[in-house]
UniProtKB/TrEMBL annotation:
Signal peptide residues on this chain, from the entry's feature table: 1-19
Domain Endonuclease/exonuclease/phosphatase span(s) in chain numbering: 24-238
Biological process according to GO: DNA catabolic process
InterPro entries: Deoxyribonuclease-1_AS, DNase_I, Endo/exonu/phosph_ase_sf, Endo/exonuclease/phosphatase
Active site: E96, H152
Xref: Pfam families: Exo_endo_phos (PF03372)
CC annotations in GO: nucleus
Entry similarity comment: Belongs to the DNase I family.
SS bond list: C119-C122, C191-C227
Source taxonomy: Eukaryota, Metazoa, Chordata, Craniata, Vertebrata
Keyword entries, A-Z: Disulfide bond, Endonuclease, Hydrolase, Nuclease, Signal
Species of origin: Kryptolebias marmoratus
Molecular-function GO term, any one: DNA binding
Protein name stated in the entry: Deoxyribonuclease
Length: 295
């Protein structure tokens, strides 16, 4: 899909210098092989420690051994992070998990569920990987409770799947009575996957109560294409905490001074097919911090 994917997106939801930082990372086929590579895990660990909540996509880990190895690596010396993870999701033998790591001193998980998108064996389900919706709570943020809806779409069905996220938001509202929602992940909404009039088929786009914080002319890759595959979309209620115009691209390869040769050296082969590195797309969101009241 993308040859190099090291760029990420930065969105600020803050009015004070300190805040809660959310992120999303698409690690290509993260499983036992990649979690056994010390150099790779050092880089991932450095990235994870930037965030208070981080979504990791494309987790291929049936027995959670790679996840546990990641947690041991992230928490070595000073346990800070906990995790919540979905079941393996997918229509075939190929399945992925959505994995959230979160800094337990600043945020907690209130509840979660996997969205029911229809009968998978019947072939009437909507998503290749249905959303794993998590409500988080933080005493540090003005929005105390907020729901995160992750989505890694199938490129060939991006229009249908992104449109159906509209129904997921409605379901979250019905279940939890909240409109404080952030949708984020690898939507594949760019270039040839979603074009021209197809945008009018996406309710999440046509309904102006949603704010797409990453514009269609953004580039979230470092390949020769200029494609905004990765997105952050927020509801109007959640938008009240956003600093307008604050979205920007974050290049973690440049920030961590990683060379392309190092990135290439970290590729792995499986069944004679090259897995295109560990690097992923970054989405970063800051939540406005509460001021401490005088006692």
């Amino acid at each position: 899909m993308r040859v190099l994917c090291s760029l990420g997106l930065f969105v600020v939801l803050l009015r004070l210098s300190a805040s809660l930082l959310l992120g999303a990372f698409n690690i290509k086929s993260f499983g036992d092989k990649k979690s056994s590579n010390t150099t790779l895990m050092d880089i991932i660990g450095t990235i994870v420690h930037r965030y208070d909540i981080i979504l990791i996509q494309e987790v291929r880990d049936n027995d959670l051994s790679a996840t546990k190895r990641l947690m041991d690596h992230v928490n070595k010396g000073s346990p800070q992070f906990k995790y919540v993870v979905s079941e393996p999701l997918g229509r075939s033998t190929y399945k992925e998990r959505y994995l959230f790591l979160y800094r337990e001193e600043r945020v907690s998980v209130v509840k979660h569920y996997t969205y029911d998108d229809g009968c998978e064996p019947c072939g009437t389900d909507t998503f290749s990987r249905e959303p794993f919706v998590v409500m988080f709570s933080s005493r540090y943020t003005a929005v105390e409770n907020f729901a995160l809806i992750p989505q890694h779409t199938s490129p060939d069905h991006a229009v249908v799947e992104v449109d159906a996220l509209y129904d997921v938001v409605a379901d979250v509202h019905d279940r939890w009575n909240t409109n404080d929602v952030v949708l984020l992940g690898d939507f594949n909404t760019g270039c040839t996957y979603v074009t021209g009039s197809e945008w009018e088929q996406i309710r999440l786009f046509t309904d102006k109560s949603f704010r797409w914080l990453i514009p269609n002319d953004a580039d979230t890759t470092v390949s020769h294409t200029d494609c905004p595959y990765d997105r952050i979309v927020v509801t109007a209620d959640m938008m009240k905490g956003v600093v307008h115009g604050s979205a920007e691209v974050y290049d973690f390869m440049a920030d961590l001074n990683l060379s392309h040769s190092l990135v290439k050296s970290l590729r792995f082969s499986a069944q004679n097919k090259t897995l295109k590195g560990y690097y992923g797309h970054f989405l970063k969101v800051r939540l406005e911090q509460l001021t401490t009241p005088s006692l």
